[in-house]
Amino acid sequence: MFNRFTSRALQVLFHARSEVSQLGSSAVEPEHILLGVLDEGKGLGSRILARTGGALDDFRSDIVRRLTGRERVPESDEIPFSASAKRALQYAAEEADRLLHNYIGTEHLLLGLLREERSIAAEVLAARGLRIEAVREAIVELLSRGEQPAPPGPPSTPANTYQWPQIPFVPSRTVHILHSGMRWPQKPVINYPGTVFSAYGFTLEDIIVRAWEGNRWHVDITPGLRDDARFDFLMVLPQEETLASCLGLLQSAIEQQFAVHVKRQGRMREVYRLTNTPHLGQMLRRYPDPESGTGFSSGSFSAVMGRSKDAPMFPLDGFAVHSVPFTFLVNWFEDILGGQVIDETGLPGIYGFELKERVNTREALTQLLRDEAGLVITRERREMPTLIVRQRKRNTGMREQSS
Q1: Residue 213 — φ and ψ, nearest 5°?
Q2: Tell me: the pLDDT tens digits for 56-108?
Q3: Which of 377, 295, 305, 391 is nearest to 25 (CA)?
Q4: Alpha-helix residue ranges (DSSP H) falling in 24-164
Q5: DSSP-assigned beta bridge partners for residue 265
Q6: Tens digits of per-residue pLDDT, 379-398?
Q7: 3-state DSSP helix/strand/coil percent for the chain, to nearest 5?
């Protein structure tokens, strides 16, 4: 069946698998495929979704909000399709046959998701007014206007995120580095199944933090090295090695290929200290503990809330979230405040949090948290382990020497 998939449909499946790694699940579900259609963004499927009149980011928000409480995905390249996802893919093939198409495109995937009626994907699509007959008619209409589907086969992109795991690399301790096909709001992913180590969608600063096991808020990097360019890293090893050994190989490759020098040093840094009063306020509500083995999907505050990457955090509109670990709220406080939050509350368990009104400044937010949630955030300076990243001189390489 997959040999009939267009390049864009194959990219949808890649994006779906990436969403599993980011959001948490034991398998690719129909909702991950729908997220993949949104991530691909150029096929007939996403164009039909755009016809509903709502922002595509709203689709993402609707799906992500329904995914809390899923089992955490293992860090493996072998993520199976669930029975529900397999049915949706089979329905997509049937819909292609019904329309007398010899290929399976993103539009057929959309039809397959609609036919898998008991899935989150179908619920979200139905809530937006999408019906299977209307989608079939839209496909015929768009194709009659001259819209051309991508031909079946692998994507016509460089051998990067979409293709290179299938390239038959000779096993070695070499770190292969290529420009990534991943874009915001996709979250970088590291997989380590046995003899294959892969890291997809990392900026240089992000991969340095992971390779040196640092903290994202404590990096002193030459300004010219901080940008949004993303890279993929792959090792096909002769034999299985420890994660520490793989990170050591990655460190050497980063310093050599990007002509940088990285060291760890104690520096005085600004942090936020989080404590709590004896009584929590109405903004913060404790929920019953989940069943043993329950996992939770995570993501940055902006990505989960459907905010654009570069949107200023303040003024901050009200929002609500339900049944998330307190550590997730701490991570979101970091995103909102723009610095590390050192949690000294010791609060266990699962919580709901609601910000009912817009706040215009960090100071206003911290005051509201103190008054309405019983959470006390104070800004202070501490000596923190900091990664110092500097450009080295070189003649050639992936990056030019910064001025």
Answers
A1: 50, 50
A2: 677 788 788 777 545 444 444 457 788 999 999 999 999 998 888 888 899 99
A3: 295
A4: 30-40, 44-50, 56-65, 83-98, 106-115, 120-127, 132-144
A5: 386
A6: 999 999 999 999 987 654 44
A7: 40, 20, 40
